Amino acid sequence: MAILTTKTNSGVSSPIGSPGRTVLSTPRYNKFKCRSKIKICTWNVKTLSKAGKVHNAIKEMKRMNIEIMGIAEMRWPDSGETQIEDHRVYYSGKNDGSHEHGVGVIVSSNVAKCVTNFSPISERVMLLQIQANPINVNIIQVYAPTADKVDEEAIELYQAINKITEKIPKHEVLIIMGDFNAKLGAGIKTQYIGAHGLGDRNERGDLLEKFVEDSELVVTNTFFQLPPRRLYTWKSPQDKPEKVTRNQIDYILVNKRFRNSFTSVKTYPGADIESDHVPLVGVFRIKLKRIQKKKPQSFDMRLLKYQDTKISR
């Protein structure tokens, strides 16, 4: 596994809602087993800076049996990691101390033992690397600029992601997930995007499509035919029975080779954390194809007793 390192703030105080001091990451050498099914999630929680919100997120993780939860709009300042209950919280925010944007990943104690590297890139991108069996897993959590921001900000986000992915070995699992603030739309099927999106495509959707095609990534939650309530990831605060305003703007991407490792990807509208987004949960399991080895050519060893006999090939 290629380890990507960045500088972190060693003197960071604990953010609001995270009891205890901040501890920076150290290598661990256990291997997390990916042959059995595990649940991976991404969720825009709007904020975890309010007292008790991070405990609420962990409570929902346990209720849904999630091992790895990516967080968008975490709103914790600076970057680091900390222990909360029996979970490990990794976070990457703005280094000016402000509670704006921010991403994070919360993992169970089983996964925490296998984390080999944590790289906080910015308040919109972070990387977590996990030593796993049968193959290592790299998780990039993102929070993309909203559609009202200039396109240059979104382009810079994808450029930052590319700088990370180009250093990750191609044979390892790469999962990029989060709030992309992009609408891919329904009925547009390619080898990287399925037909089961929602609504109409927007310009940020075009940008995301180009990114997944160039990177050979599959948008997993567009490949599962489900009722609309299991597809939408965001609902408008003005959403009403007479006027439903819901969109699919959060996604879980995986490198094309491991597309079939996700056996299910859907949303859980019943989860509660006072957010206009709902958690997007994927069931993940790695299956590697067995390589058929050629049988070695056998020789009749009895021929060796005849000195003048050559072994034919």
From TrEMBL:
Gene Ontology molecular function, alphabetical: catalytic activity
Record field: compositional bias (Polar residues): 1-16
All residue ranges annotated as the Endonuclease/exonuclease/phosphatase domain in the record: 41-277
Stored Gene3D superfamilies: Endonuclease/exonuclease/phosphatase
Region of interest called Disordered, as start-end residue ranges on this chain: 1-20
CDD domains named in the record: L1-EN
Protein name: Craniofacial development protein 2
Organism: Cacopsylla melanoneura
